[in-house]
Structure prediction request, 312 residues.
Amino acid sequence: MPRPPGPVDGIRRRWTPPAGPYDLGLVLGPLRRGPGDPTFRACSDGSVWRTARTPAGPGTLRVVARGGAVEAEAWGAGAEWMLEQLPELLGESDEPEAFTPRHRLFVTVLRHRPGLRLCRTGLVLESLIPSVLEQKVTTVEAYRAWRLLVRRHGEPAPGPGAAEGLHVMPDPRTWALIPSWEWHTAGVDAKRSSTILRAVRVARRLEEAAAMDPERAAARLELIPGIGPWTAAEVVQRSNGAPDAVTVGDLHLPGIVGHALAGDRYADDAAMLELLAPYAGQRHRATRLILLGGHAPPRRAPRMPVRDIARL
Prediction:
């Protein structure tokens, strides 16, 4: 397990979650893009570190749950913004009680994995760019690309996180100036890099989507060529804390949901949406619970091969 970065004073805030079970790891887990994500670190002392490029500038946040409360410390130009947004990030506005289990497996998962609340970052690009990198490739490829690009073109995290290799992702202008051969070296094809370049050119307009209702936010994202329903859902789940933003167009999710709810490992998107219909308004939460319960069907086909674009 990674060791926690050394202590350097930042600014602090203490927040008490709403009554009921609360699991900090489950709440923030979707923000981690692989075990080597340079913007996210889960440490052996139970603390979680995250960096972000906020409207006020780059920031580093450390949070740890102790005695029924969350203690937070932040550094950098974005520190005040990160602490102001802390309750939203940690799921204060989420309403897990709105979910009514209609299948036995949900009762079981909620009993064994309580404490899930949906985070809301209030930031769009930090979820959009890695989601675009994940289009039509393995997670191994996408995580590698994110790791290489952020480390090379981002900046060291403010505060003690820098000594541990944490970075803040590049700003929109820096993303736009990455030369084509560096995208290639990171294993990112022209289609995905072009989508990212189109997005960062209108970064301010896209960031406005974090304050919209999820449907309008997704519609704004989908105005960018190369961003479809799959990518938009993956973003608003994180940026807007959208409990109903179910991911369609995924290679594996329909079969997982179909297997879990109906024993149908070959379910397509239409079948998945039909099975999730009783959970309208909470379909994303339903899929999170299915995944947390480990209800994927046994693998029968070979894994999708990892490509090495840099060698082509």
